[in-house]
Structure formats: structure tokens, C-alpha cells
Amino acid sequence: MTLVLLASCQGGSSSKQEEPQRTAAPAVPTAIEVHDTKGSVTAKISADRPCRANVDGIELIVGTRPVVATVGAVQWTGDDDNGGTLIRRDGEPVARLAPGQDTLGLFDPNGVAIVRAMLSNNSVRVVSGQGALLRTATRTSTGIAVGDQTVTGTDDLLLAAVLAAPEARPEVRALAACLRANPGDRAL
Question: Residue 75 CB: number of other CB atoms within 10 A?
């Protein structure tokens, strides 16, 4: 009787034993790194959740959607609206991350551009708030060349351009890169 019950639970009798179902190992998140001309890493994010960032020696663990990070006693948050994401430092606005169709801009709280990255064909033009060309970002065999820096671990030109933008403070670059790497419900 017990054998009959076991056989019926197995879906009938079969002379062929089924292989145990194998699952693929979880993917290891790739680190996105900015390398200077000497090869030193100046910025790094791990795009898993939470996103971990180290930009110019400042480390952040970033929760995305809602955006939240703490550096020492300083609380960083981000509020999404139709204009992008308003980034706040201890409740005070410090920057706005504004995505577009083929652009990604960082603006100060008054709406003045800090830096904008604009996709054009297979490269990105990085311009200042005044519209002056600062550098370009292009794919190479070793990563993405952003001016004299190299970004590895991503093929996203806009992400590379913003992460490598020294015009913006490190915390803002880290938050922008984490949001771009983990857009959630919103496309950045």
C-alpha cells in the first residue's frame, strides 16, 4: 500500500530516474568603475540592491525608489516628480537629476545645469551649464572612454558620463549613477 502511494505521488512508475532540477547560480553583479589615466579607480558602484557606491573616497549605500543614503550624519534623499529626481541633503535641495529621451542632466536647485550628457550617434557629448563641450564619451575595446578616464562594467554611455563628471559633487554622482543603474518604475 505504501509503495502504491509513493508511486502515485511520483507521477507513476518509470524505469528512468529524473535528473534533479538544477538552477543557475545567481548572477554576480558587475561593478561599474571609473579609472583615471594611471588606472586607479576613482569611482565605483555595484548596481545590485541596495546600490553601493564609492566616489572620490565617499562611500554610500543607496536605497533606490525611494532614494535614501546616509554619509556620516548627513541624510541624502531623492524625490521623484515629472522633472526627474530632486536630490536633497538633510532636506535641502542640492541638485536635480533630469533624464530625457537621449540626455541625462544634473542641475543645481535653481535649475542651472551643472553638467549635461547628450547622446549623439554612438557617443555622448558632455557639456557644461553654459553649453561648452567638456568631453565626449565613446565605447572602446576596454570600456567607455570619458575624456581621459575609462569607465568599465557598463555599456551605458549616459551612466558613464555622469559617474565620471567631476563638476558634480561625489554624493550627487553616486546617487545619479545608482538611479540610472536601477531605474525601478522610472526610466533614467
Answer: 13
Strands 133-140 and 143-146: antiparallel
The DSSP line for 3-68 is HHHHHHHTTS--SSPPPPP--PPPPPPPEEEEE-TTS-EEEEEE-SSSEEEEETTEEEEEBTTTEE
Closest to 43 in 3D by CA, of 169, 187, 179: 169
Give the whole-angstrom CA distance, residue 175 versus residue 68.
9
Give the C-alpha separation, 66 to 111, whole Å. 22
Cβ-contact 69, 63 below 8 angstroms = yes
Q: What is the identity of the amino acid at 38? A: K
The dihedral formed by the CA atoms of 37, 41, 47 and 49, expressed in degrees to the nearest 10 = -160
Distance of alpha carbon 166 from the chain centroid = 17
Tens digits of residue pLDDT in 57-105: 999 988 877 788 888 899 999 988 888 999 999 999 999 999 888 999 9
Residues 14-39, mean pLDDT to the nearest whole number: 67
For residue 77 the three cell numbers come to 534623499
Q: In 3D, which of 175, 152, 150, 177 has the Cα closest to residue 163?
A: 177
Q: Which helix (H) or strand (E) holds 177?
A: helix 170-181
Residue 74, φ and ψ in degrees, nearest 5: -95, 130
